[in-house]
Design a protein that fits this description.
The complex is a heterodimer of chains A (about 350) and B (about 280).
Chain A lengths: L17 H6 L4 H17 L8 H26 L7 H19 L3 H26 L3 H24 L3 E3 L7 H8 L2 E2 L5 E2 H19 L1 H11 L1 H6 L4 H27 L1 E3 L6 H11 L11 H20 L7 H23 L5
Chain B lengths: L22 E10 L2 E11 L4 E6 L5 H8 L7 E6 L2 E3 L4 H6 L2 E4 L11 H5 L6 E4 L2 E4 L1 H14 L16 H14 L4 E5 L7 H16 L3 E6 L2 H7 L2 E6 L2 E7 L5 H9 L2 H12 L5
The chains are: A mainly alpha (about 350), B alpha/beta (about 280).
């Protein structure tokens, strides 16, 4: 057998252009989309406020509660799983915390801790059921979605005789909790504190995804579960952790909503699961897993926030918001598919 | 099926070595429900040697690999690592014991970059205390160096592994295993999807790994490739061990014959001649 040493340069090897590197970024499509949407609403704006500091405070407010959950949902999608119960979990955790404090006299802060623990358990159940049964997470979490939806309504009605939990603001410790979760900052523009949480979640998730071992595992379990398992990646632990993270992020939004609104409707959060998934997909997550980014999901959430506020500011009928989101979703998937094909070097 | 022509049984490898085998199976059987995939398999894998496991499709090679690499547990018999009876509950445990497996087609994650694949499951970390981050710079440098040492010049460690050729992907996986100090390297059909030249490169690397003192288990259905690198050969057929050879006592022709079931191949040759398709 002859020993072949590689030639120092191989004529078949083209250097990777900066453009290819850029195209490989999953959030590129979302960023371009965000610029277009921002420009569009700036022009269509009839109040003259959209592109100002005040306008920004409004759309980031709207985007923040989407983004906080969309980011872990994106991580979960990169790992190849869905969580359709993430929307209803917002309501469940808000109600859980509200009922603990108003019906059972638990002070606010212990109730908040219990709520996070409860949400972690729900995430654990989701994750365990998905891994144990081998059923698609789409089905398992859909079942969880409907179960929680029923429980939310049933328990709230049984305990309060209404479909909402109110009077949380009279609970011991509410004021300090409201400062942390439901207040505003930078008067007179009044940015929501939720925006800070959103940025923190995004930074944390991005660091985990790109800079840590666990992040590497997230890509691996979504990209090729068998290859990941064969190289020794703990597939179960990785996926279950992400289900727990998603559920706890939903609980964070639940508590943000509760402290802000001082009450909770039994139907809160229902339907939001799709908003989160739209944000993640617009942000460059592949539905098949293995590809995506946390920043992308946040950009996706921004687009959704801009749409909600921008359409109102433009003086259009807000009924059209969902149509707008539908079109954005479809366009984003088209662009992302094109980009990821280019990024993969068009070999497959 | 015609009876397998008896091939003279050769002296089995010395069991009284001073050093225990890197990996050993003793009367191992594996069944899935009513299907017996492996029956009474005894084999020995030594450091600094290439142990070839040959078998046709359905011979039980895959099941054997999965037992060695910790994916499956034997139904009967025992698995010994450096002389110690061991029971792996996951591939990660096997990996921790120094057993690395390169699965055909399942070795890399296509959408992940080459360097991330190279370090998957063994990521280099830096940082203080409990906060540890990936050392991406180091990872990329080592990845490029190790692949160059194997004769593969990747243009860009950031490119997705899916854009590499089959041989390059296989090379990434082998280089990875050797780099991480695998004591036992199990290769599942590493050359089956490759062209002649790339097969040569992979075989060369098999020998390099052997010279580094790694116990290489080379699983293949190609007796020619096996004979080029193998020190010891085990032949599997329908879940049973049919032959066992040492390098110095077997010719390539004997190996091919034993593998093809000898008489069966001759019968096939005659049949083909009779049809006039083959002069």
């Amino acid at each position: 057998m002859s020993v072949t040493t590689p030639a120092p340069t191989d004529e078949r090897i083209a250097t990777t252009s900066g453009l290819t590197r850029l195209l490989r970024r999953p959030e590129l499509g979302a960023l371009m989309g965000a610029v277009v949407v921002y420009a569009m609403f700036s022009v269509a704006d009839t109040t003259g406020k959209f592109a100002t500091i005040v306008g920004t405070a409004r759309w980031t407010d709207s985007a923040s509660t989407v983004g906080i959950v969309a980011v872990p949902v994106a991580l979960l999608m990169i790992a190849g799983e869905f969580d359709l119960s993430s929307g209803v979990m917002v309501g469940t955790s808000g109600l859980f915390c509200g009922l603990l404090t108003t019906e059972y006299g638990v002070p606010m802060w212990p109730a908040i801790l219990l709520t996070f623990a409860f949400a972690a358990c729900i995430g654990l159940v989701n994750g365990w059921l998905v891994m144990l049964t081998g059923l698609p997470s789409f089905i398992v979490t859909l079942a969880m979605f409907f179960s929680l939806r029923g429980i939310n309504l049933g328990v709230t009605k049984t305990l309060t005789d209404t479909v909402r939990v109110a009077g949380v603001d009279k609970v011991d410790g509410f004021d300090s909790a409201a400062k942390v979760f439901g207040s505003t900052f930078w008067h007179p523009y009044d940015y929501r504190i939720a925006v800070v949480w959103w940025i923190a979640v995004t930074l944390l998730a991005t660091t985990i995804l790109t800079k840590t071992r666990f992040g590497n595992w997230i890509y691996a379990v979504g990209g090729d579960k068998l290859a990941a398992r064969n190289t020794g990646v703990p597939v179960w632990r990785t996926k279950i952790t992400l289900f727990v993270a998603t559920s706890m992020a939903a609980a964070l939004v639940g508590i943000i909503d509760l402290t802000r609104l001082r009450s909770m409707q039994a139907g809160q959060g229902i339907g939001d699961e799709f908003t989160f998934i739209i944000a993640a997909v617009v942000g460059g997550c592949l539905l098949t897993g293995g590809f995506g980014s946390a920043i992308g999901a946040s950009i996706g959430a921004s687009i959704i926030g801009m749409a909600f506020i921008g359409i109102a500011y433009a003086g259009w009928n807000t009924d059209w918001t969902w149509l707008f989101l539908g079109v954005i979703l479809f366009a984003a998937v088209l662009v992302n598919t094109f980009i990821s094909k280019r990024a993969a070097g068009a070999r497959r | 099926m015609t009876a397998i022509e008896p091939v003279p049984e050769l002296t089995p490898p010395a069991e009284s070595d001073s050093q225990p085998a890197a990996l050993q199976l003793k009367s191992v059987a594996k069944s899935f429900g009513s299907v017996i995939a492996l029956h009474d398999i005894t084999l020995r894998v030594d450091a600094g040697m290439v142990t070839c496991v040959l078998g046709d499709n359905g011979a039980g090679k895959s099941t054997l690999i999965k037992i060695l690499s910790g994916v499956h547990r034997p139904t009967e018999g025992e698995l010994l690592v450096h002389g110690e009876p061991t029971r792996f509950s996951s591939p990660r445990e096997a990996q921790n014991a120094g057993i690395a497996t390169v699965f055909q087609d399942l070795a890399t994650v296509p959408l992940m970059s080459v360097w991330r694949n190279f370090f998957l499951g063994n990521e280099p970390l830096r940082g203080v205390g409990p906060v540890k981050f990936l050392d991406a710079k180091k990872a990329k440098r080592i990845c490029r160096e190790e692949l160059l040492a194997m004769g593969i010049d990747i243009r860009d460690a950031e490119q997705p592994a899916g854009t590499l050729s089959g041989g390059e992907r296989q090379a990434v996986a082998i280089a990875r295993a050797v780099h991480f100090g695998a004591k036992v390297l199990i290769l599942d059909e590493p050359t089956s999807a490759l062209g002649v030249k790339q097969s040569g490169v992979v075989l060369k690397y098999v020998l390099q790994a052997r010279d580094r003192g790694v116990a290489v288990v080379f699983i293949t259905h190609n007796p020619h490739h096996a004979h080029l690198v193998g020190d010891r050969f085990y032949l599997l057929n329908r879940g049973q061990m049919t032959h066992e050879f040492e390098r110095r006592t077997v010719t390539r022709e004997e190996l091919v014959r034993a593998m093809a079931g000898g008489a069966e191949l001759e019968a096939l040759a005659h049949e083909l001649e009779d049809t006039g398709l083959r002069p």
